[in-house]
Design brief:
alpha+beta, four-stranded mixed β-sheet, globular, binds flavin-adenine dinucleotide
């Protein structure tokens, strides 16, 4: 197995770097580097920039608008985007629903919905989880009852990320209450502006509005919005989750965040000495760097195996667990490095001092280290919690 990049792949890397240098606005990159939330307009603009180049849906087949990249090229692109602090692609339309429609949608659904994902006409959100149906997703209770050419939907979804920006939601709904759990579920596309849909914000520990609850009361949904067969939605649901888990490991994010942390720790002092000379801090920093190096190699091994025709098995669960642990540890060390300035609520005077403390990290300041620390706790929960990933690994490798 050759883990080196070919000359052709290195040329592709240069092309991506040049694109990012030309097209990525420095003020947006600075916001991403600082861990600030982007506005809806900023996210949409980045989607449009990628789409204009044909690089938005980089894992879609070419016939649907994908660029026809190899697995290695996709990896290089994602990695370079992280290193340049490009905004992440909002995953719900492009990375989640798109592949489901390509595999299970009717030709009419593909023709209608896929171009709208690419050109930004629709903003999708994910309606899987409910109170009482998270890890045990097949326990969803939201019902869809057939009434002529429509389904009547009643129930509640929760943790709906960026649902307040969305005009459409893809949902798992129960269409047969008597069938075995997984067998009575369907995959339905619902208009967020339809009468009977109500969205309520959930404010998270970092003070941000990122997630929501969505309520459905007698919402009429055209039967044409059913993807795949009625009561066979579980197949779509599982297929989508394999896409959701890719990239949560976020190696590129960690590489960029670790570099920032090292620059920050070199500037900080504790008791008159550089923080990097503090043995306890240096040990944790070294450990996370070694873990990240190991992850990079494991990731390249998985990519090489997939490029050679294999499929990622338990490895994607391993990468998810380790990758999210590393990302969380880096936010924890960044919070420590910022010391008292990591507090969530700073006075104006203190904010001015923060610039003094943290500047030098390529112009970005880390004014929200505590917020990022809290926000990143989510990483080990969503996309299938890390405990659930361990169950998957034990089944696939140990056969338990
Ligand atoms: C910030 C954030 C954004 C999210 N965005 C979305 C979204 O956009 N759309 C959406 O549909 N969902 C979203 N989710 C929901 C997410 O998928 C669920 O939170 C996740 O699946 C866990 O489900 P739960 O919260 O119901 O916890 P539970 O399933 O109740 O789990 C509670 C705890 O028990 C553990 N546990 C549960 N079952 C087992 C088991 N069998 N073995 C071992 N341990 C177990 C879990 O690991 C966890 O620690 C989001 C969640 C968060 C935190």
């Amino acid at each position: 197995m050759d883990l080196n990049f070919t000359a052709e792949e290195e040329r592709f890397r240069q092309e991506v770097r040049q694109f990012l240098a030309e097209k990525l606005a420095p003020e947006v990159a600075a916001k991403v580097a600082a861990g600030d939330h982007l506005s809806k307009a900023e996210m949409e603009k980045w989607h449009a920039t990628l789409n204009a180049r044909g690089w938005l849906a980089n894992h879609w087949p070419q016939q649907f608008g994908g660029p026809g990249w190899t697995t290695v090229e996709k990896f290089i692109f994602e990695h370079e985007c992280c290193l340049a602090n490009a905004p992440r692609v909002v995953p719900f339309g492009v990375n989640m629903l798109g592949p489901v429609l390509i595999k299970y949608g009717s030709p009419a659904q593909q023709q209608y919905w896929l171009p709208r994902i690419l050109n930004g006409q629709d903003w999708w959100c994910q309606g899987y989880s409910e109170p009482g149906a998270g890890s045990d997703l097949a326990a969803v209770k939201t019902t869809a009852v057939r009434d002529g050419d429509h389904y009547i939907v009643n129930g509640q979804k929760t943790w709906t990320t960026l649902g307040h920006h969305a005009n459409m939601i893809f949902c798992l709904v129960r269409t047969d209450r008597d069938a075995k759990k997984q067998e009575g579920i369907s995959f339905l596309l619902i208009d967020m502006h339809a009468p009977g849909v109500e969205i309520r914000p959930i404010i998270t520990l970092d003070g941000a509005h990122e997630v929501n609850e969505v309520f459905f009361t007698d919402v009429r949904v055209p039967v044409a919005n059913l993807v795949g067969e009625e009561n066979r939605g579980w197949t779509c649901a599982k297929y989508l989750l394999t896409y959701e888990r890719t990239n949560i490991a976020g190696i590129g994010f960690s590489v960029a965040a670790l570099e920032r942390l090292k620059r920050l720790a070199a500037k900080q002092t504790r008791n008159g000495k550089p923080l990097l000379d503090d043995p306890a801090f240096a040990m944790r920093l070294a450990r996370v760097e070694i873990d990240l190096e190991n992850m990079k190699t494991t990731n390249l091994r998985v990519i090489a195996a997939v490029a050679g025709g294999g499929v990622p098995g338990a490895e994607s669960s391993m990468l998810k667990i380790r990758g999210t642990e590393i990302r969380q540890e880096i936010t924890s060390l960044t919070r420590r490095a910022m010391g008292p300035y990591a507090r969530p609520f700073l006075s104006d005077d203190e904010l001015a001092e923060v610039t003094e403390v943290a500047e030098g990290s390529e112009g970005s300041t880390i004014t929200n280290a505590a917020a990022q620390y809290f926000n990143n706790r989510k990483l080990s929960i969503f996309g299938g919690s890390n405990e659930i990933q361990k169950n998957i690994i034990s089944k696939m490798i140990l056969g338990l």
